[in-house]
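Blinded run. Sample ID left blank on purpose so nobody reads anything into the name before looking at the predicted structure. Input follows.
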Amino acid sequence: MTTDNAIIVRNKTRLEQLIERFNTKAQARFYIEHSGGDFNAYQQEHDCFYQSLEKIQRITAQHLKFKIIDRSFLPNFIFSENDCIVIVGQDGLVANTAKYAKGLPMLPVNPDTSLNDGVLLPFNSDNFQAGLLNFLNENSAFKQVTMAEATLKDGQKLQAFNDLFIGPATHTSARYKLWYNKMAEVQSSSGIIVSTGAGSTGWLSSLFNMANRINRAFDNSHHDMEMQMEWDDDNLVYIVREPFKSRHSNIQLSAGIIPKGQSLKIESHMPVNGKIFSDGLENDYLAFNAGSIAEIGIAKEKANIVFTGDLIM
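Blinded prediction complete.
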């Protein structure tokens, strides 16, 4: 398929967010320095980002028409099938972009290799031109990433690159009925995490860490559980956080694997403040209050990340 346009996705720097908060750069500097912080670190990070962004723009303009959009516009932005997506930012921006990309190829760029881990950022301002040319000449390596999807009965959908959270917006109990593997039960918990393979080293791993430490502390067990998943693994894992057993709630279906073609079904019993959000973005969510029913399964589209290399994987 011909690629005609590049959509460059970016996020505001920390300095830009501070200026928005305090109205001027001088006031932002005063606040940081008055609090004992190093304002120069914010300025250097900002300058480094813009040096990389400007270089990426120059390179892209040599080969494609392009448009720059802020991350905040992603939920309402309509991509064309002839677009590619260039992401300039941290690893989290790749995850945030992927769920709106509809399977379009993404070229993630690390604007500051001294600051960002770059697990999802194969390119930088030095190797981006070679990577873009390989992609345009159909000589790139691709990494496909399985995503999760929550679908409500009214047709609303939300995808996740790393994980979905289903539960209360505040620190209260989530109440719901859950169906899994032809069984059902009413539960009360602090919410449900559904993880993809890409997310298995994040929030999901912290839950396993907690379970393993509890087990060692009270059972003297030295056998740790692990959940290793590949990015393109066609399974999701769900875990119920802090399930509470009572006369009205049970804990038998507190964890499990959701394979391709199957789903986890959840009916909300929360009168208010029920939410489903993905990848840690609480402001981009589906309302999930009493009467709402969600089905959680593997999304049809996979995220397509262009990696360095000479052969298509």
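Unblinding after everyone has recorded impressions. The radius of gyration is 22 Å.
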